[in-house]
Amino acid sequence: MRCKRLWGFLLFCALWPVQAAAENRFIVRVPSGLALLQAVCALQGCTVVRGLDGTLNQVFLVTTPDAVDPTVFLSTLRSMPGIVAAELDQIISLVGGLNRVPTPLPTGLLSDRTPVNYFGGTVWNSYANQPAARIVRLSEAQNTFQVTGSGIVADIDTGVDPNHPALQPVLLPGYDFTRNQPGGSELNDTSPCPFTSGCPPPPCPTCPPVKVNQSTAAVVDQSTAAVVDGSPYAAFGHGTMVMGIIHLVAPTAMLMPLKAFHSDGTASLSDILRAIYYGVQNKANVINMSFDTKTSSAELQKALDYANGQGVICAASAGNDGIQEIVYPAALQSDVMGVASTSDQDARSSFSNYGSAIVWVAAPGEAIVSTYPFNTYAAGWGTSFSAPFVSGGAVLLHSLQTAIGQSGAAAAVANAVPLDPSLGLNHGRLDLMMALGSLSGTPDYSVSALPASGTINAGQQANFIVSAAPAHGFDQTVKWTCSVAPAGATCGVSPSSVTLDGSNPATTTATLMTFARGELVTPLAFPRYAPPPQLRLVLVTSLAWVMVLLIVCGSARHMQRRPGLATAAGILVVALCAYSCGGYGSNAPPGPGSPTLSSVGLNPMSVTGGSSSTGTVTLDAPAPTYGATVSLSSNASAATVPASVTVATGATSATFTVSTTAVTASTPVTITSSYGGVTKTASLTVVPQALPTLSSLTLNPTSVIGGTQSSTGTVTLSGPAPTNGVQVLLSSDNGAASVPSSVTVPAAASSATFTVSTRAVTNSTPVTISASYSGVTKTASLAVAPPGTPAGTYMLTITGTSGNLSHSTMVPVKVN
Description:
Layout: H1 2-15, E1 23-29, H2 34-44, E2 47-51, E3 59-65, H3 70-79, E4 85-88, E5 91-93, E6 115-118, E7 121-124, H4 125-128, H5 131-135, H6 138-145, E8 152-157, E9 175-176, E10 181-182, E11 209-212, E12 218-221, H7 238-249, E13 254-259, E14 266-268, H8 269-281, E15 286-289, H9 298-309, E16 313-317, E17 337-342, E18 361-364, E19 368-372, E20 376-380, H10 387-400, H11 406-413, H12 432-440, E21 444-450, E22 454-456, E23 461-471, E24 477-485, E25 489-494, E26 497-499, E27 506-514, H13 533-554, H14 556-561, H15 563-580, E28 597-603, E29 606-608, E30 612-619, E31 628-634, E32 639-640, E33 644-647, E34 653-660, E35 667-675, E36 678-687, E37 694-700, E38 703-705, E39 711-717, E40 726-732, E41 737-738, E42 742-745, E43 751-758, E44 765-773, E45 776-785, E46 792-802, E47 805-815
Parallel strand pairs: 8-13, 8-15, 9-13, 15-16, 16-17, 17-18, 22-47, 29-36, 38-45
Antiparallel strand pairs: 1-3, 1-4, 2-3, 5-14, 6-7, 9-10, 11-12, 12-20, 19-20, 21-23, 23-27, 24-26, 24-46, 25-27, 28-30, 30-34, 31-33, 31-35, 32-34, 35-36, 37-39, 39-43, 40-42, 40-44, 41-43, 44-45, 46-47
Helix pairs in contact: 6-12, 7-10, 8-9, 10-12, 11-12, 13-15
């Protein structure tokens, strides 16, 4: 016994920290234990500072004077028999990254300080009922599965405020590896008290939030801002905030603060290793690591392998550099779940690292409200605050299944809300209902329909309420389809998809449509027709002539006795002849004193080939009794005009149309007009026409009875067709409907119609009609239905599909 005590004393002395002005630090693995390493250091001039792996007694911290070349010393150690590994100790920092507090702050942040009861403690309402808790469905999961956390969650961090009333009931003492003493309080970092009077100050209910901790992106009450003034406090409060999020998720789990980080946000890898082994050997079920480093470490992996082997679940933050990179420990995915950050809208946070190599799952990480030292609360941005949602969820999983380990927890957490794969967030965003539900059974759903059957007459429709009921927290989108057999009817589902909430059924409506027997006759519609003015003139004139002839022929003998009547009839004949035959020659040459041509103008003066311009001839005086005929001509084929235009009697001007043809280059044209010995000209520019593109294809109606009804298709261009028109190619993908091989959009028109003919079918048949022009193809869908639904019993099959899952229900419908 005395020998054991002596060896214990000697071991204590050997492990007592040795202070040095400057030193190199090494992590050395010696499976045979301390004695061999001490013998090596006696020869090499190194010092064994302490063991790092607790009761295992195989991993040690060794120092050498700064003058010793670390590379040479590492090479020497690795060559020594019995020493299996050696690496440099490294400094890991919480400080840095892109997670800055937004400006301005989100509306209402930290404003709801209403005291509410949260599992026996009094907390702010903005903490207990924050948006992030609703997003991961925290309350729903706690109530559905009756779990609030049983077990121990260790957090390797800056420590915790042991006096915070929200956390105090569930805090274990923990350990301070920065001071090598029991207790994980981060308040020791602020001693002596930084306040001029009173330590700490009371919370300030009326003070506005203030930005602090840019490295951890926190905002807190004004009253605590002085604590973090200056670089020594860059990460102060980080551990208390992370602990608060774990407590929010698992309020009855015990919390073990393992203080490996100083308040400036730095920690040595050797202290982190000590914390991992301490947590495992002191019965932690979950270890949270809200930090990352870009430098790999074999000893860090061995420590986490050890935790995994002991059934401890680990989660780590993915980092805040906003890029796809490799960071540790998140990249050690066989031992750790790496956690990225998402916004309240399920978008990847701009500051969050991403990529399947480091991200197992994502969780909310913006404006997360949590506990903060001195009995107050703060809001934080960063993957540091996403990881504890997963760590808290892991201890809830442990509550349901005490034997669950890292692989089982990772598989459960992978039942998450799918996100856009391009976000690089692997399994999606944490959903506690789905994660917990996966332990009691695979998340799934069932489908059913009411009523269970139906009877209708041909030509009627039957509606059924279709339900999808989730099981084990299933909360994905279910897409609906339906089919009907035998042929002769159609079906549809509206809405075509529903999204489940994990607990409650969601419904939609399925409709079976039948068709009346016998052909459907479309009533003929006679269009109302109004003849053009010229035709009206001819009709009126003809009618007048008929009346005159009747009068003349029927009243000849009366005219002999009444000469005045004969005279009136003669005058009427002459007048009608003058009116209907165009007068006495408007093209007659002008007499003495006739007006002359004053000008000719064009509007517009530049047109696209195929379009037209309006010309106007103007006289210097009103046209004579029989009008004035002005001769017209064009000097280029790109534009044509009528041979003449007539200025009506008493008028001074008349208009005419200048028609143009398509050109390949800008073409000037001179329009010439002549009258009364005077010639005038006007210039017109004809420019090339840009070819239109195919804009759309539509069908009306979109559902027809095969063989008895047709549909009208319309192709529409993006602009007027050129001079020669546009030929649009047409096709149908099913013989139930046929179309012509093409349809021509006439020059200057922007659309054209065609007929879609159909044939009789025995089953509702979808047909796709395609139109193509100049490399652009448009499609439209047409449903061709059978001419009538025969009597009989039809089986309506309704199917709900979500991912790889598919479930159906069948409804028999009798058709009379």
